[in-house]
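Good morning,

Attaching, inline, the backbone tokens for the sequence recovery test we're adding to the shared suite. The designed sequence is right after.
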């Protein structure tokens, strides 16, 4: 086995083949194989991947349980859209990045820059947008190509493993809370303190809000308290709703859980004119009565990952020490086991896949 690994590394160094986890068909396990190292187009960079976060969206894509994502998913796909690594080659048209730069690649591989959404600062909603790890190959591999215009430089104070989850989990909760107007004097409920939720607690705290964390798991509630939540409540406790109502309800409830029941609860936590933030993606439809929305003048808002401007703000928060993702490193070969743990809800924080030996990480 040792010989095979050595050969694989030597070939990767020569730019011939690399190890990658391939999704051959939705509903199947990923297959870890040797495949050719891709070649960057003129406007792309080739990145040697140091870390790639495992996102719940990756599981949805692999399982094919979200029709909209399934329709976009390319054949023979390399998943992964929370990618950090070193530039090893630049396309002929790239002049602002150089070999050796440490960069990250996010969900948005590229946006057109000329449609209404792009011109309004909503490039994350670009109708011609290309998605990393869905429409083009992502970071569950030793190398990947990224559009140079959308590759973001990583602050030196962040390790690659720390930075990777910020490219989806971090930027998604940042945008959700920012769009909902979270700030000083606001009460914010974070429903589900997992990979996204523990970041939402920190971002809302950094924005100056009073944070109420809600989960079914006592260890996750303890983590939320450590991260700045002023109150942490178990959603299974019948007193929880009464406690929140005594406070007057919350201005914003951000749901990071993928359970429909979490949304049913969260809606009841809102104060009049409160905002429900849709972040977690249950497979079932969300159902709220028109009267309950009208009667409270409730707002329901979604957040679709984020823009490059949002990403810069998130990386800055992390560089200042206000945002830290709890990570667990696993080798790329373990990706199917990670997915199985994710299905069982056994992951706290974020699992980050690494393909290289420790001395490659900076």
């Amino acid at each position: 086995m040792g010989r095979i690994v050595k050969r694989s590394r030597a070939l990767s160094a020569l730019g011939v083949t690399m190890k990658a986890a391939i999704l051959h068909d939705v509903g199947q396990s990923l297959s870890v194989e040797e495949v050719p190292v891709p070649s960057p187009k003129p406007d792309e960079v080739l990145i040697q991947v140091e870390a790639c976060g495992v996102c719940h969206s990756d599981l949805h894509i692999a399982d094919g349980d979200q029709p909209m994502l399934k329709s976009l998913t390319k054949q023979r796909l390399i998943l992964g859209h929370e990618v950090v690594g070193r530039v090893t080659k630049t396309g002929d048209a790239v002049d602002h990045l150089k070999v050796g730069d440490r960069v990250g690649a996010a969900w948005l591989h590229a946006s057109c820059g000329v449609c209404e959404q792009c011109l309004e600062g909503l490039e994350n909603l670009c109708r011609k947008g290309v998605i990393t790890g869905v429409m083009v190959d992502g970071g569950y591999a030793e190398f990947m190509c990224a559009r140079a215009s959308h590759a973001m430089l990583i602050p030196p104070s962040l390790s690659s493993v720390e930075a990777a989850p910020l490219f989806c989990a971090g930027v998604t909760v940042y945008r959700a809370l920012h769009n909902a107007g979270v700030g000083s004097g606001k009460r914010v409920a974070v429903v589900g303190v997992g990979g996204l939720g523990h970041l939402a607690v920190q971002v809302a705290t950094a924005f100056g809000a009073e944070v109420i964390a809600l989960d079914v798991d006592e260890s996750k509630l303890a983590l939320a308290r450590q991260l700045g939540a002023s109150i942490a409540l178990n959603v299974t406790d019948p007193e929880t709703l009464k406690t929140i109502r005594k406070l007057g309800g919350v201005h914003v409830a951000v749901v990071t859980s993928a359970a429909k029941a979490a949304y049913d609860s969260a809606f009841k936590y809102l104060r009049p004119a409160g905002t429900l933030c849709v972040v977690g993606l249950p497979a079932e439809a969300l159902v709220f009565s028109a009267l309950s929305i009208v009667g409270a003048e409730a707002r329901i808002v979604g957040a679709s990952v984020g823009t490059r401007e949002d990403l810069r703000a998130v990386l800055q928060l992390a560089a200042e020490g206000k945002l830290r993702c709890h990570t667990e490193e696993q080798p790329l070969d373990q990706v199917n086991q990670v997915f199985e743990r994710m299905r069982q809800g056994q992951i706290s924080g974020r699992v980050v896949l690494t393909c290289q030996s420790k001395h490659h990480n900076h």
